[in-house]
Automatic annotation (TrEMBL):
Keywords: Plasmid. Residues 1-111 form the YCII-related domain. This is DGPFAETKE family protein. Gene3D superfamilies: Dimeric alpha+beta barrel (3.30.70.1060). Belongs to the YciI family. The keyword Iron-sulfur does not apply. Pfam families: YCII. SUPFAM superfamilies: Dimeric alpha+beta barrel.
Length: 113
């Protein structure tokens, strides 16, 4: 079953780590472990939330808002898509993600198409 692991973290804290390069090694090791296990389907980092656009369509009117729609303390910073046997396995991988230490990992099953 496929799951998306969404990494949420305070962007200000992440920016400080990014300058020092402290965040890279744990994520590289995590991605390698996912690859080695055969669970990794895909994933990537996202640019900062201020680069986002939010699109809503009501009736025939399209509204485009600059930046994220939600005003939250933590922002979506990246994701992994994994293919594992069940939710328990997905939760185990989420707990191993470096982003779980200073943020949160949302685990969501994907629709089978």
């Amino acid at each position: 079953m496929k799951y998306m692991l969404m990494i949420y973290r305070d962007e200000a804290l992440f920016a400080a780590d990014a300058k020092s390069g402290a965040h890279s090694a744990p994520y590289i090791a995590y991605a390698e472990a996912l690859k080695k296990s055969g669970a990794l389907v895909g994933g990537d980092r996202l640019q900062v939330s201020e680069t986002a656009s939010t699109v809503r369509v009501t009736g025939n009117k399209t509204e485009v808002l600059d930046g994220p729609y939600a005003d939250t303390k933590e922002q979506l910073g990246g994701f992994y898509i994994i293919d594992v046997p069940d939710l328990d396995a997905a939760l185990e991988w989420a707990a191993k993600c470096p982003g779980a230490i200073n943020g949160a990992i949302e685990v969501r099953p994907m629709w089978v198409m």
